[in-house]
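Q: Please design a sequence for this.
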């Protein structure tokens, strides 16, 4: 299969690039600024790296076209690129809001719009959004992040209905706390509290999210669409 992963240079996206590549799939990934990470990943996996800021519409569309051209089409799109920010609601500036919404939500719209045209023409495809459990239950001091992730649920439901007749499945994965750079700024105490609040008593690994994405991309998941699947150790039950 031909797989496109956004935000592939680090964290969950990187685990997806490694996972799909190890299974022999052709993989392209988009990243914004982590040049060294992207270089080491292409050397390790043979995946194609595309540098673009996909929070910007024209740049995202160009990156999507580059991926279609380099892979010869896209069978599976994993919309994973994202940023987080912890701020009191009243302190969130217009720029903060736009930055989080454009990176987490609009990028998924820009990329999915272009890639879905390719999928529709071939009457098959898989689109996966990486949401967050905070899009389900809301996170205090992350209103813009939670809003961006909740909106991905709506995009999932809508696209599943619209693209289903074209043979395309659309699903959303909602991770809980996963061991990536995104959480490196959290103190040990906060991380311990999050583990304590998680029924399974630990945080998750990026490879666990990659394995779920691989399942949703496989033949085994061919009748699953419009679903939001949590992978959070039971945190957001
Ligand atoms: P991460 O380690 O911080 O990696 C984020 C990735 O997104 C990087 O590859 C980064 O590229 C890319 N990216 C960010 N902004 C971009 C832009 N404007 N254009 C292109 N690429 C961009 O994050 P992560 O923890 O793996 O998170 C991945 C996804 O999972 C995010 O959507 C996040 O919200 C979601 N998630 C994470 C957790 C968690 O606990 N970690 C939990 C729930 C959901 P560069 O490095 O090149 O900038």
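A: Design:
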């Amino acid at each position: 299969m031909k797989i496109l992963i956004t935000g592939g240079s680090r964290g969950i996206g990187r685990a997806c690039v490694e996972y799909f590549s190890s299974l022999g799939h052709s993989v392209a990934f988009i990243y914004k600024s982590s040049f060294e990470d992207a270089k080491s990943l292409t050397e390790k996996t043979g995946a194609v790296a595309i540098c673009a800021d996909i929070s910007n519409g024209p740049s995202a569309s160009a990156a999507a076209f580059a991926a279609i051209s380099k892979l010869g089409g896209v069978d599976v799109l994993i919309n994973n690129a994202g940023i987080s920010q912890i701020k009191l609601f009243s302190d969130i500036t217009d720029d903060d809001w736009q930055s989080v919404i454009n990176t987490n939500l609009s990028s998924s719209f820009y990329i999915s719009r272009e890639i879905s045209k390719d999928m529709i023409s071939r009457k098959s495809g898989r689109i996966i959004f990486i949401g967050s459990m905070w899009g389900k239950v809301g996170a205090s001091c992350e209103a813009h992040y939670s809003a961006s992730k909740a909106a991905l649920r709506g995009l999932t439901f809508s696209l599943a209905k619209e693209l289903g007749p074209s043979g395309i499945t659309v699903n959303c994965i909602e991770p809980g706390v996963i061991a990536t750079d995104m959480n490196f700024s959290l103190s040990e105490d906060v991380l311990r509290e999050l583990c304590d609040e998680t029924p399974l008593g630990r945080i998750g690994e990026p490879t666990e999210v990659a394995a779920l994405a691989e399942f949703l991309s496989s033949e085994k998941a061919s009748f699953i669409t419009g679903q939001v699947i949590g992978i959070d150790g039971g945190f957001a039950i």
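Q: Thanks. Anything notable?
A: The beta strands are 2-6, 26-31, 48-51, 76-79, 125-130, 168-175, 228-231. The longest strand covers residues 168-175.
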